[in-house]
UniProtKB/TrEMBL annotation:
Keywords: Membrane, Transmembrane, Transmembrane helix
Location of the protein in the cell: Endomembrane system
Broad class of where this protein is predominantly found: membrane
Transmembrane helix keyword on record: yes
Domain DUF202, residue spans: 11-73
Protein name, entry field: DUF202 domain-containing protein
Length: 109
């Protein structure tokens, strides 16, 4: 439903495009974590494996978050209270952590 007078949303593909963007983001986070782990494991050590695992878990969570948002826009109720931007904050923090890990590897080797 549209926020304007309870009218249904106009037809279009905006919700589908947004859902695809969440899926691409999830896949990108997983791939970036695995690539960083692969390229830096020799320089940084096995600690980077934890970062790769965290990236994989975060990627799965981002995919589920995107699916929940897609379903909510189609009228299905979301379980639990709203997240209030925590998804975006966690995603941004993880991407920054990946970048810092790669920078540390470049500086060490």
């Amino acid at each position: 439903m549209s926020p304007v007078a309870g009218r249904p949303e106009p037809p279009g593909l905006a919700n589908e495009r947004t859902a695809l963007a969440w899926q691409r983001t999830a896949l990108s986070v997983v791939v970036a974590a695995l690539v960083v782990a692969r390229l830096t494991i020799g320089r940084v050590g096995l600690g980077v494996v934890l970062l790769a695992a965290a990236g994989a878990v975060l990627g799965g969570w981002v995919a589920l978050e995107g699916l929940a948002r897609y379903r909510a826009r189609h009228g299905e109720p979301r379980p639990g209270p709203g997240r209030g931007g925590r998804a975006t904050l966690l995603l941004t923090g993880t991407v920054v952590l990946l970048a810092l890990t790669e920078l540390a590897a470049l500086l060490l080797g």
